[in-house]
Design brief:
Blueprint: E1 3-8, H1 13-24, E2 27-33, H2 37-47, E3 52-56, H3 62-74, E4 81-84, H4 99-127, E5 130-135, H5 148-167, E6 173-179, H6 187-190, H7 197-200, H8 206-219, E7 223-225, H9 228-237, H10 242-253
Parallel strand pairs: 1-2, 1-4, 2-3, 4-5, 5-6, 6-7
Helix pairs in contact: 1-2, 1-8, 3-4, 4-5
Amino acid sequence: MRLLAVVTGASTGIGYELAKLCAQNGFDLVVAADEPEIHDAADTFRALGAHVEAVQADLATLDGVDTLYATIQAQGRPVDALFANAGRGLGKGFLDQNFIKAKRVIDTNVTGTVYLIHRVGRDMRALNSGRILITGSIAGFIPGSYQAVYNASKAFLDNFAYALRNELEGTGVTVSCLMPGPTDTDFFRRAELLDTEVGTAKKDDPAKVARDGFDALMKGEADVVSGWKNKLQATLANIMPAGMLADQHRGMAAPGTAHKH
């Protein structure tokens, strides 16, 4: 009997690579994203031998999460692994952002993610079995000048993952947190960061980041920072003053910094 995995944000990037790994490692899938490309992605996962249900839903809304959860329930079997990966970014100074877009970052990264984990996590706890991987970020360690809402949302997720893991000690449910650095995905275009240093710099391979996350989930590890440069940055973030970190981030994410390359 194949296991069941749920992957959000699975149409592109890290989520796509996570779902592919699941399909290659004996999982059937329920995959979700807020764009029609999720159906093309599902065909790729089916070709790898998995039974796949694809859900196009807006996971920034409670209704969208409920739609996904109803599809999960319709499978008639427990979720063995939840990859809470859907995320959204937004560049530029906070006061210059469109607030509706800024709110959408919070609703996607925080509200939708914790609501899905609340629903699926309760089912896992009732069965004393399950694995959850939350895609946080090393951005959560750094005050994100010119990505203020995004970095704060990832700080929330990093923190939340450790707390939930602790609460679930003694059950058969594990929570792991994947903390990538800048990764070569569509994120930077969508977040309007292509005119910045971080938007144009060399980035990590999403397949490698996904493999690190998948392995951490399967081993039940607390966290994994993907990439040695990011490990170094995470270590420095613990000892550098917040003001200095914010200034450093400004140099990477302020509009107009792309010309440094």
